[in-house]
Amino acid sequence: MNNTIIFPNLHITLNNVGRSIDLFNFKIAFYGIVIAVGMLLGSYVIIRESRRREMNEDNILDVIIFSLIFGVIGARAYYVIFSWSLYRDDLLSIFNIREGGLAIYGGVIAGVITAVIVCRIKSLNFLKVADICILGLPLGQAIGRWGNFFNREAFGGYSDGLFRMQIPLNQVRSMDDVTKEMLNNSTVIKDTTFISVHPTFLYESLWCIGVFIILILLRNKIRFDGEQLLRYLLLYGLGRFWIEGLRTDQLFLWGTKIPVSQALAGVIVVLSAIILLICNIRQNKLEKQ
């Protein structure tokens, strides 16, 4: 039962859920495989959208490649910075991302900065490029979040709701993420102790699919450059603010109990909503002239 994951209220039992596969005596983590698939499908969507918008594919591909590379670096750096106590005594472990430890907001920030630089070098309109590239991001996130499922990480507190997920206690990546309420409500199945948690990876995956669908439906209704980017920031931020509040593995601002990603999500939601409102008001005025 150690590799079993159960969704009891959905009557779903998944047996033999491993963390990796062996290929020529080399272990490849499902975490990395899932994230790579998300990147590839997200990139495919972006390329398709660039063709539809009649943008130069080579330029868009350059933006994608460099943004992905530095996005992964940024996602790792963000996680390490706000979890420094886990790495300060073993600096080499910083480079081991097979076990998890990527923060999406770090990836988004680094990816956007990289895209700005590439667009500057190639004399491209960053906001036009962003409206194209942002379309693939929520799809990639929706798929990539399942890496947390295989790693038994990034879950929420105790839950007995419809989507509650039961995972073996001895398979949890970090016991620091296990609360007293989980332990008090644990269940023993065939000599294996299971805890019941919110599957926040699933919540975020479904939310990102919803964001992706909305952006697809609105891609022909762009009134100004950067509108799709702002829509993504607002919609994803709303979901992330809620979901982050459920998680037990939150990263905190130094010396505080303020979840850094939840705080960042809140700030992004407010700023993107204000900018969207201002830009739409300006656009209305221009159209009336």
Features of the shown structure:
single chain; 289 residues; mainly alpha; 3-stranded antiparallel β-sheet; two-stranded antiparallel sheet
- What order do the SSEs take from the amino end to the carboxyl end, as H and E? EEEEHHHHHHEHEEHHH
Characterize the main sheet: 3 strands, antiparallel
Q: Summarize model confidence as the mean pLDDT.
A: 93
Major β-sheet strand ordering = 5-7-6
Count of helical stretches = 10
Backbone shape: globular
Q: Which blocks of ≥5 consecutive residues have pLDDT under 50?
A: none
Structural class designation: mainly alpha
Account of the 3D structure:
The protein has ten helices and seven strands. With 289 residues, it is mainly alpha-helical. It has one domain. Strands 5-7-6 form a three-stranded antiparallel beta sheet, with no helix packed on it. Strands 1-2 form a two-stranded antiparallel ribbon. A two-stranded antiparallel sheet has the order 3-4. Strand 3 and strand 4 form a beta hairpin. Helix 2 runs antiparallel to helix 3. The radius of gyration is 20 Å and the shape is globular.
